[in-house]
Amino acid sequence: MTKKKIIKLFAILAAVFLGSLEMGWRFFNMVVCCKRGEQKKERKKWFELSHIRENHPQNGYAREYNESKAWCFEQNMQDCYIKSIDGLKLHALYLPAEAAKRIVILSHGYRGSRFGTLSFMAKYLHEHQCDVLFIEHRCCGDSEGKYITFGAKEQWDVQQWAVYMAERNKEKLPIYLYGQSMGAASVLMASGHTLPPEVKGLIADCGFQSMERQMRDMAANWFHLHHIPLLLMELDWFCSLVAGFHMKDADATEAMKKNKRPA
Q: Strand pairing partners for 153?
């Protein structure tokens, strides 16, 4: 093989490698990096897909969704703060109920908010004698953070919020962890760690098993990409190098093997 052909082959391989790396970076930026402050018009390019519209609570239940969300904003709630294990200031809002019989910690979903898709359930729980803690995951609402870790770090945040509430639970009311979507996965992952004895159960609404399986599902169902081992490897590289976690850290399988609470 001549020197010219070798250089040409090397250039082609380099272009393929850099192109693949660019795709991995774009995928990482799309799914992991925080989008706070960006204009919604830009976000729609990536996330305004039919799957999202059809699965959103407003689809068919807009009145109930908006009424419950407005109800949440009308309530007099207490700001709560903790520091995460990696030094982030995390925020939550606490809503006490009259003659409360239990405490429910609400863990919202991917790129969610304190008064988003869980607002209807929050209203119902509060009306049925539940103190409610609306946590805001890292990178969401008033909580600090630059990256969404699909439960890899959120699980520890949920655990710390459970400890926070248990320390202030003078009546020793039972505590329940209620999560939705990524928030549900975070709750399930947290169950594998040491939780206060007051935590009596878990409610996981539409959670997922692991970040890797979720990425495979998104690639297949959203973009019709069914074989993405290289993309997943690159995504894991960026998660590790930039965001400080591996995809394998976001997996509920082992946690559920350890969990002894009803879920």
A: none
Q: At what angle do helices 154-167 and 182-190 cross, to 10 degrees?
A: 70
92 DSSP β-pair partners: 80, 135
pLDDT tier for residue 222 given thresholds of 50, 70 and 90: confident
What is the identity of the amino acid at 257? K
DSSP 8-class letter at 80: E
Strand partners, 136: 91
Query: CA nearest 69: which of 38, 111, 113, 25?
Result: 113
SS3 category, 176: strand
Which tokens belong to 217? 């599902």
Its pTM stands at: 0.87
Q: Quick one: which of 44, 100, 69, 55 has its CA closest to 217?
A: 55
pLDDT, greater one: 60 or 43 = 60
H or E element at residue 95: strand 89-95
How buried is 217 (Cβ within 10 angstroms: 0-12 exposed, 13-18 middle, 19+ buried)? exposed
pLDDT value for 43: 47
Q: What is the pLDDT of residues 122-149, one digit of tens each?
A: 999 999 999 999 999 999 999 999 999 9
Closest CA to 79 of 155, 133, 130: 133
Q: How far is CA 96 from CA 79, 169, 202, in A?
A: 12, 11, 20
Query: What's the CA gap between 254 and 135, in Å, rounded?
Result: 24
The confidence score (pLDDT) of residue 132 equals 97
Q: 143 near 169, Cβ under 8 Å?
A: no
Helices (H) then strands (E): counts for the chain:
10, 6
Exposure b/e, 94-109, CB count within 10 A at least 16 = b: bbebeebebbbbbbbb
